[in-house]
Design a protein that fits this description.
Layout lengths: L2 H12 L1 H16 L6 H8 L3 H7 L3 H24 L5 H17 L1 H9 L1 H6 L2 H16 L6 H19 L8 H20 L6
Helix pairs in contact: 2-3, 2-5, 5-6, 5-9, 6-10, 6-11, 10-11
């Protein structure tokens, strides 16, 4: 196990707010969002309902806060990307970092996929679309042809597909992650070169 991973886990464990988020997400995954109550979340955490209430008043608040926390790295990535020159290196770096940010948020995306009605109700999807648009604008050149625009958008969707579709493919998770990243980087590279392959 890498030392850094354990560190982050440890840090998350020590933080009550984040422990609540993690446990809530586990329960939502096991028995569904609708069927899970705040009381059950408190019981699994072994805290009083009042202690849970101090941090979150409703299940909705837990999901919205989780979404904001886990997508914060994507927000930061967009901010960073906007300040960079429109070079191929920048685009490749954005794809790399976006892949990492998504990996960290996989349980949340699974929740979004399985609870689409809730996601619509809480308007989480809208924020996510805005972030996707922000990223797209950074990796697509202003004068890119339609084909190259599609390549760039496909690069982002390749990373998304990597989280779900690739689970069904045989192979080591790390190898699959690398393969997904390679394809996404290939797409932005081709788009950058105007479809010419090096």
């Amino acid at each position: 196990m890498g030392g850094t991973m354990d560190g982050t886990k440890q840090q998350r464990r020590g933080n009550t707010r984040q422990r609540i988020q993690d446990v809530a997400l586990e329960l939502f995954a096991e028995q569904g969002y609708e069927k899970t109550s705040l009381r059950e979340i408190a019981e699994r955490l072994d805290v009083t309902k009042a202690a849970l209430y101090y941090h979150f008043k409703t299940k909705e608040e837990i999901i919205v806060s989780l979404f904001e926390d886990l997508t914060q790295p994507i927000e930061e990535l967009i901010e960073w990307g906007r300040r960079q020159p429109h070079t191929l290196e920048t685009k490749q770096e954005i794809v790399r970092r976006y892949g990492q940010a998504l990996a960290g948020a996989t349980p949340l995306f699974r929740f979004m996929q399985e609870n689409q009605a809730t996601v619509r109700e809480l308007r989480i999807g809208d924020t996510f679309k805005d972030r996707m648009t922000g990223l797209r604008d950074i990796i697509i050149d202003p004068d890119a042809s339609l084909t190259d625009q599609v390549r760039c958008i496909s690069a982002l969707f390749t990373l998304h597909a990597g989280m779900f579709v690739m689970r069904d493919l045989e192979g080591d998770p790390e190898d699959k992650r690398k393969a997904v990243l390679e394809v996404a980087i290939d797409l932005v590279t081709q788009a950058h070169q105007g479809g010419r392959t090096a």
